[in-house]
Design a protein that fits this description.
The protein is mostly helical and about 90 residues long. It contains four helices and no strands. The longest helix is centred in the middle third of the chain and has 30 residues. The chain is flat. The chain starts with a helix and ends with a helix.
Length: about 90
């Protein structure tokens, strides 16, 4: 949990540095939006990672394997939907 808070602080403190990084000004708002989402997701990710390591340490690897496979399938499907722009078609269907 403390690692997640530290990483959140690092991301929040690094965001203003984007304006001095020499990147095109038009991509910085999108980058800030992306990093804001990353900041929000840091604590749940660290909680998942901690529980994953504990369960693997207790030799309960089947649950972790199932969760990883299911998450990867969902990730592949959603990547396809978002990358191809199919969300508009699914929303109105």
């Amino acid at each position: 949990m403390s690692v997640g808070i530290i990483l959140m602080a690092v991301l929040l403190l690094a965001m203003p540095l984007l304006y001095h990084s020499g990147q095109p000004a038009k991509i910085i708002p999108d980058t800030v939006s992306f990093l804001s989402i990353m900041v929000i997701s840091m604590i749940p990710f660290m909680a998942f990672q901690t529980l994953r390591e504990v369960s693997e340490g207790l030799s309960y690897t089947i649950g972790v394997t199932k969760a990883t496979i299911i998450a990867n399938i969902i990730n592949i499907a959603l990547n396809y939907v978002f990358i191809k722009g199919l969300w508009e078609y699914l929303r109105w269907a």
